[in-house]
Amino acid sequence: MIGWLGQRTIDGYLYLTDLSAQVYVTLRELISPGRQGRWAALRVTFRQMIFTGVDALPVISAIALMMGLIVITQAGTQLPKVGGEGLIGSIIVVVIIRELGPLLTAFIVIGRSGTAITTELGNMRVAQEITALELMGIRVSRYIIMPRVVAVVLSMLCLMLYFDAVAVLGGFIIARIKLTLPFLAFGHAVAQALSLTDVLVTAAKGILFGTAVAVICCHHGLSVRTSYTEVPQQTTKAMINSVTICLLLDILVTIAAYF
Amino acid sequence: MKFAIELSNVQVSMDSESWQVDFTLAVKPGEFMLLVGPGRSGKGLILKLCAGLVAPDQGTVRVLDHDLAALDDEGLAELRRRMGVVLQQPGLRSNMTLYTNVCLPLVYHHGINEEELRPRVMPILDALGLKALEKRFPSQLTAGEARCAALARALVVDQELMLLDEVMAGLDAEMVERVDRVLAEHRRTHAVTVLATLHNPSPLLERADRIAFVRQGRIEAVGPYAEMAKNPDPALQVYLGGRPGSRLAS
């Protein structure tokens, strides 16, 4: 039992070291002065942003609207019963903007783009596309990893802000049928409850979650070695580890910012 | 530079084989050397050693005046820019057309725009009979066409060394003739060093400056075609195809 625990701890430590090294390599590629491959990498970044960011808007909109409707309806109908009408703004900021928005956005990005990245890189590895790139002197860190990390981080950031806006405003419009609260009073309550810290924390979560998801999914995709049967296995691992690490990062950021 | 490729007492343990690889080989600049021999004899491994994909357990591998063991990732990437490598699996990007695949090294390394790309790439595609297939994706190509596309991708960049692993495998007779012609022309105009493997007789045998016979991880004989054709080893003659002068033909 102790041996198993020790082995798991060592494996976990090595895994986090690998991920940290990947983040370092990505940052180095991002700021390194060499111009070689910049345009090709930019094209990959753009394509990844379209897939991760723009193509995800319909599903993000639908989930944000539903989530906003649920939270605003519950808050708007239950709080007055206990004399807590004045807390509606705080409830929305805490539940949607601080927590549900970033986490649900991260989960959608993991489900849509993270799995796609792992699958794509895994298949590339088995088909020797990665080896062929290396043999052409093309740096995988610059052409494959860095563009995906940058695209996922930027998309995650934008999608989180979009999720919050749609959940709060769209949710209110839908819930307006049941609520007696006028829009101005609702907007005022939310604005009063929202602080600069909330916006910065959401942005920090966007950057951290985006980096974690992209790096984990690239790492697992490139961990595929010889067989196509490894691809779904690595994709499952990437998804579970991405969700776990995003939750851990969420706890850390929340404690650091609000505790 | 005395040798374009120099393998000195290179030893590699093979998990899948009972024997150990032990090579010593030197290829002069501008030389065309062919490695012939049975499958799983270590021919492809020599190319992978030269490309830096496999590190030897012992010995040194020097390529274009660089000791590969002394190079970091960046140095190796720089060195690979001076090589054109075609492995048995072509490794074409599945989400790119044949044309964009061939253009990739030019776009990545030189940032060449579309106006300059076509005049540079299309003649090579034309010479290899791939012009009509330029808009096809790798999944729509035959194995031979994909191999030719990988060869085209290696040829578009000005390189000093070409490593070709079974480049003639899976090609029809017309394709073999085209590849033979294109390689001969490329060598004539670029003075490039070529190290290629073959496991079937091909016109390349007579074009090569020297042929090395590889068996069970050892280089058993090296020499020009005319000399090798006189070698009494029947196993070698099988790979020389019983051409005039060879034991099988006689």
Overall structural domain count of chain A: 1
Q: What's the helix count of chain B?
A: 9
Overall form of chain B: globular
Interface with most residues: A-B, 22 and 27 residues
Structural overview:
- The complex is a heterodimer of chains A (259) and B (250).
- Chain A is mainly α.
- Chain A has one domain (2-258).
- Chain A contains nine helices and no strands.
- Helix content of chain B is 36%, strand content 22%.
- Chain B has a six-stranded mixed sheet, sandwiched between helices.
- In chain B, a hairpin with a 6-residue loop joins strand 1 (5-13) and strand 2.
- At the A-B interface, helix 2 and helix 5 of A face helix 2 and helix 3 of B.
Brief rundown of the structure:
The complex is a heterodimer of chains A (259) and B (250). Chain A is mainly α and 259 residues long. Chain A is 84% helix and 0% strand.
Jot down its keywords.
heterodimer; A: 259 residues; mainly alpha; 9 helices; elongated; B: 250 residues; Rossmann fold; six-stranded mixed beta sheet; four-stranded antiparallel beta sheet; globular
What topology emerges from the helices and strands here?
The complex is a heterodimer of chains A (259) and B (250).
Chain A: H1 2-31, H2 38-52, H3 57-78, H4 88-126, H5 129-135, H6 140-175, H7 183-193, H8 196-223, H9 230-258
Chain B: E1 5-13, E2 20-27, E3 32-36, H1 43-51, E4 58-63, E5 66-67, H2 73-80, E6 83-86, H3 98-110, H4 114-127, H5 143-155, E7 161-164, H6 173-190, E8 193-198, H7 204-207, E9 210-215, E10 218-223, H8 225-229, H9 234-240
Parallel strand pairs in B: 3-8, 3-9, 6-7, 7-8
Antiparallel strand pairs in B: 1-2, 1-4, 4-5, 9-10
